[in-house]
Design goal:
There is one protein chain. 36% of the residues lie in helices and 18% in strands. The protein is an alpha+beta fold and 272 residues long. It folds into two domains: 87 residues, Phosphorylase Kinase, domain 1 (2-Layer Sandwich), CATH 3.30.200; 174 residues, Transferase(Phosphotransferase) domain 1 (Transferase(Phosphotransferase), domain 1, Orthogonal Bundle), CATH 1.10.510.
Length: 272
């Protein structure tokens, strides 16, 4: 995608620099010229903007997240199509100056129980609020957990989100392409189906990674990783770190059960 730095979107948002890029969109640090404040503007890649399915998913992200007013969820402020200038489908979000949980794990490795729970508690609180509102995330991973410079933790990118009113279930193919395979539940890989228990599985994998500094399955092709999530059992964290508290080890083990019926039924139950 061409760099749109310098463009003014919707006669309001001046794009200053690229801060992240993914398969669907590029995120810019921008200035809201009307309110004179920094924002993050997510712009869909132009080759996808003609695809109604992708545009629909992009808009669902905005609607799903905008429905959630929670201190640990990145706030959505605007959404639209750029009427003047370069064609663009965009979402405007609050700008979080800081880093991601992925950065923390990459720098520190295993975080230990206390620090892991310090990051995990606000994440699970946010997902509990989302599940209570009937909204799934479907792409929970360290890259989507933002940490501001003053220590606030926020979940971003409800990019695969779906509430009862927000559209149909993803297919197996698009789920694997758009989700991050290291965090996908067996049912997402096998059948392209997900519910709140699928988010619980992903949360369990994230907590596993924080505690141990590594994913359960890594260093392989995406297909091999997906296969292992379907056919293997996520190991107990005590197998790698014997001094892990039993209650935490059991929590992770239950959250990552291959059978969704054996997991907590939603993030609220996991939180409790």
């Amino acid at each position: 995608m061409s760099d749109l730095t310098g463009e003014i979107i919707d006669n309001r948002y001046q794009l200053k620099r690229v801060v992240a890029a993914g398969g669907m969109a590029t995120i810019y640090y921008a200035l809201d010229l009307r309110l004179d404040r920094p924002v993050a503007v997510k712009i869909m890649h132009p080759h996808l903007a003609n695809d109604e399915d992708f545009v629909g998913r992009f808009i669902r992200e905005a609607k799903a997240a905008a429905a959630l007013a929670h201190p640990n969820i990145v706030a959505i402020q605007d959404q639209g199509w750029n009427e003047g200038g370069v064609p663009a489908v965009f979402i405007v979000m609050e700008y979080i100056e800081g880093f991601t949980l992925r950065d923390v794990i990459a720098e520190q490795g295993a975080l230990g129980v206390t620090e892991s729970l310090r990051y995990f508690a606000p994440v699970i609180a946010a997902m509990s609020a989302a599940h209570s509102a009937g909204i799934l995330h479907r792409d929970i991973k360290p890259e989507n957990i933002l940490i501001s410079k003053d220590g606030r933790v926020k979940i971003a990118d409800f990019g695969l989100a779906k509430g009862p009113q927000l559209g149909a279930t993803l297919t197996v193919e698009s789920s694997v392409i758009l989700g991050s395979v290291s965090y996908l539940s067996p049912e997402q890989v096998q059948r392209g189906l997900s519910d709140m228990r699928s988010d619980v599985y992903s949360l369990g994998i994230v907590l596993f990674e924080m505690l141990l500094g590594k994913k359960p399955y890594d260093g392989e092709t995406p297909i091999q990783i997906a296969y292992r999530h379907v056919n293997d059992r996520i190991p107990n964290v005590k197998e790698f770190k014997s001094d892990s508290p039993e209650i935490i080890a059991v929590l992770v083990f239950k959250a990552t059960a291959p059978n969704p019926d054996q997991r907590p039924k939603d993030a609220e139950q996991l939180l409790s």
